[in-house]
Amino acid sequence: MRVEIWADMVCAWAYIGKRRLERALAGWEGEPVEVVWRPFRIDPAAPVPGEPLAEVLTDPRVDEALQACNPDLTPSDNRTLVSRIAAAEGLGPPWGPAWRASSHDAHRLIALACERGGAALQDAVVEGVLRAHFVDALDLSRPEVLDRVAAGAGFVEGAALLAEGGGDERVRESLLVGKATGVRTSPTLVVSGRALTGAQPPEVIREFLEGAGGSTHRRLPAEVERLRHAESLLDQRDPLGALTLLRPLLDDHGDDRGVRMLAARAYYASAQLGRAEATLERLVAETPDDSYARHLLGRTLQRQGRPGEAEPHLAMASVMTPSYAS
């Protein structure tokens, strides 16, 4: 059974959740469990290098990011509660982050560890990253801090891979997949398509794992999942994210009509009207009775200030599908 944990390394509940998951799995007698960490960002605007947290705690953007860890509490109450619970989980002292810093490179290191050494190495890196931020009060955005974490976890090649930019595309795509699948808070545990949000007590986690492990979840082919994730992002008004996920499909399955239609919609929504026009013209030429493709082509031409060229397509689309006339 694979347990995916979507979490940010600057979220204290992620560290608490890690300890609680470890307790839930102690003495586990069910099927073997593999824990894999996936990226989530509670503060995407956090800077590189980091800035002292004490100076920015009054910034409303930071409060909003902190509240994403526990939406039911105010940021101030959240910090007080976190300190008390962290102590109960054996974290610290000392305890408490000192920096508001981007976690992007930390997520790159974590993804690379999984890719190169599997779940065990990744877990060691995650532990080192969380400790560096919450116990050692270090700036996670600094390369020397992550180099030290990699070395301490036995990830010998980690520093060099980070310096080469490794893991960047993987992390950016994973963040989009998380968004597409509905991950909204850190941490979120996902097993067989079922999710458990927040750092729940060990008994709740164990009950969740027992239920999720016994469920049947048919995984779709990777290409189909990618297409569905791209469509979800487009529905969430993130056409550029959708195009990021579509890029490999366009390269490998560029003749697939569904892939091209979704790309055309994303081009249109992101105002890449030339690309939308070229894609839609080909789709209409292949299937002249596709009223939606024809309607979208007309709208694309209309947005480019070419009403004369748009009108025939819009008129024909409205005849085939009267609702397009409104």
Automatic annotation (TrEMBL):
This is Putative DsbA family dithiol-disulfide isomerase. InterPro entries: DSBA-like_thioredoxin_dom, Thioredoxin-like_sf, TPR-like_helical_dom_sf. It comes from Nonomuraea muscovyensis. Keywords: Isomerase. Residues 3-209 form the DSBA-like thioredoxin domain. The keyword Cell inner membrane does not apply. One of its GO terms (molecular function) is oxidoreductase activity. Residues 303-326 are annotated as: Disordered.
